[in-house]
Amino acid sequence: MSDDLRLIEDYLPIEAISAEALREKSVRKGHISTLHLWWARRPLVACRAAVYGALVPADR
Questions:
Q1: Spatial separation of the C-alpha atoms in residues 52 and 6, rounded to whole Å
Q2: Residue 18 in domain
Q3: pLDDT tens across 5-44, in order?
Q4: How far apart are CA 16 and CA 21, in angstroms?
Q5: Which domain, by its residues, includes 30?
Q6: Quick check: is 43 in a domain?
Q7: 15, 40 in Cβ contact below 8 A?
Q8: Number of domains in the chain
Q9: Where does 1-60 show beta strands of DSSP type E?
Q10: Which of the chain's termini has less CB crowding within 10 Å, N or C?
Q11: Between the CA atoms of 30, 34, 35 and 40, what dihedral angle is there, to the nearest 10 degrees?
Q12: Is residue 1 part of a domain?
């Protein structure tokens, strides 16, 4: 077993990520994602947080 613990395994602020994803979903003007409204919106905030959490080692 490795001691290489990642941030996503140790701490991931789910409530803050969910609130930001909800805000991102409701943006209608002034955001780059509104340049072309695609029918299948992707939760960019949640995806970025998951990738970052998987790559960054946890502070121990």
A1: 10
A2: yes
A3: 999 989 889 999 989 888 877 776 666 666 666 666 667 8
A4: 9
A5: 7-55
A6: yes
A7: no
A8: 1
A9: none
A10: N
A11: 170
A12: no
